[in-house]
Design brief:
This protein has 341 residues and is of the alpha/beta class. The chain folds into two domains: 201 residues, Isopropylmalate Dehydrogenase; 119 residues, 3-Layer(aba) Sandwich (Isopropylmalate Dehydrogenase), CATH 3.40.718. Helix content is 38%, strand content 18%. The longest helix is centred in the N-terminal third of the chain and has 19 residues.
Amino acid sequence: MKRPIIGITIGDPAGIGPEIVVKALNQEEIYKICKPIVIGDKDTILQAMKFCNIQLALNLAAEPEDGKYVYGALDMIDLNNVDINLLEIGKVQAMSGKAAFEFLKKAISLALDTKLDAIATAPINKESLKAANIPYIGHTEILEDLTNTKNPLTMFQVNNLRVFFLTRHVALRKACDMITEKSVYEFILRCKEALEILGVHNPKLAVAGLNPHSGENGLFGYEEIDEIMPAIEKAKNLGIDAVGPVPADSVFYLALKGKYDAVLSLYHDQGHIATKMVDFERTISITNNLPFLRTSVDHGTAFDIAGKGIAGELSMVEAIKLAALYAPYFLNPSGSSALKE
């Protein structure tokens, strides 16, 4: 079986990203399912190994094809962009924000050139990006701009629960205004397409309700009647297996139990709380409708514990595993896969 090549960015050098990457690649199971190559800074990775008391042979590669991809050897593309003597672990720094951006930019370039089958990202810090005058607030915005993708579609997965988000980082009051028949209908179509690309054919998609008990026929609000239900009916007329609105206090549980293939969450916290209560560390973010597949841990840089070697790597491991799982299904726009033996 061909192993996909997964590019792994180390995130903010001052955070826990380098440590969880090192810990993840110290696990033999990763090498059985993929060919992982780190995009980062050599000195930062060597320092992270010391923090974690892990010894891996470092193989510097100019291109992903130069990797050894064997357990015990960490393959890496070194951007050599961090002055380790000036790096302050656990603190916001312009140097770290700039480096984190450059790691991601390089990974994007390699993926667009089909030299990577997918990328898995460690956390970056919004304040560090700002300190470096990087004009983006996070991964999604960088990916959106550098790939010329309009409005990337975020999906969380934990176990077999998949959750999409109609709105992301906006105020709750604004999010409610964004829930229209047009937006719900368009997102149902986008969710179906994303699931099909990931190998989930003819998916059953549940749309979460907005109000308590999905409005109780207008008793607690009319958004379900005026906006959400018409959108679902319109999608059904196209043959899409969409249901709802299903009350938010039950829809995620039902999806976790297998009744639905995915849930369309209407606002940020609605879906975040549901997935993270299932398993915080195993909740992984997948960015859809890019020219390539991207997965990510769903936690921050954890400056408070950075440099102590105690950060848990489970989320990083799961992000790499999901990238390896879905990569064979994911084709680039030209219709050809970057999968190589």
